[in-house]
Amino acid sequence: MQYESPSSSNAGDSTTPVDGSDQEEEEEDSDEFNPYQFISMLPSHESVCIFDKICLPPVVSPVYQSLPTLALDLDETLVHCTVEPIAKPDLIFPVAFNNQVYQVYVRKRPYLDYFLETVCKNFEVVVFTASQKVYADVLLDKLDPGRKLIKHRLFREACLLVQGNYLKDLHVLGRDLRKVLLTYVSFAKGS
């Protein structure tokens, strides 16, 4: 559920409604996902991580040895995807999942192609997604058909399953974490 601020028409209203609508709003807001509460309830990293789990090959190319690593999230960061038809999709492609074929409609973040072409010159680019490989690999093939922009792809299998959530543990990159950047930027509502 998205957080919605009180409407501006009630901003200057100093009266309290007697119908209990404020109480309903408070109860609704309490159901909202609170990332800080979620993080505070997580077990320690040492108790859930898989030590020695490295998902990327070692860096052998002198070109990449000097570059920092840029880990990019996929869904709602680089693209917005849905199986519901949308107006003016940038891509449409089929994905077979559980013996059913779905049409996936994709909107790329504005200037995504330019962004990837630019960052691949200065970073070892890794897409690290909690999405399943059967979908994400097809999508990444569409975004980077020659595999020249994105050096590595990590999927759900590389994540830690903690309390029903797939979490990205950057230790699985096998890189010096002082030289790793992680991006996560969500599409704004209505994008």
Structure explained in plain terms:
By secondary structure, the chain is an alpha/beta fold. It has a single domain (19-183), classed as HAD superfamily/HAD-like (Rossmann fold, 3-Layer(aba) Sandwich), CATH 3.40.50.1000. It is built from six helices and nine strands. The chain has helices at residues 21-30, 35-40, 45-48, 62-65, 112-119, 133-143, and strands at 69-72, 79-82, 91-97, 100-108, 124-128, 152-154, 160-162, 165-167, 180-183. The strands form three sheets. Strands 6-5-1-9 form a four-stranded parallel beta sheet, with helices on one face. Strands 2-4-3 form a three-stranded antiparallel beta sheet, with helices on one face. Strands 7-8 form a two-stranded antiparallel sheet. Helix 6 links the parallel strand 5 and strand 6 (152-154). The longest helix has 11 residues, at 133-143. The protein is globular and about 45 Å long. The two termini are 17 Å apart.
Task: List its salient traits.
191 residues; three-stranded antiparallel beta sheet; Rossmann fold; alpha/beta
Number of domains: 1
CATH fold-level label: Rossmann fold
Distance between the termini: 17 Å
Rg on CA atoms, Å: 21 Å
Could you estimate the helical fraction of the residues in percent?
10-25%
Which SSEs are present, and which pair or pack?
Layout (H helix, E strand, L loop, with lengths): L20 H10 L4 H6 L4 H4 L13 H4 L3 E4 L6 E4 L8 E7 L2 E9 L3 H8 L4 E5 L4 H11 L8 E3 L5 E3 L2 E3 L12 E4 L8
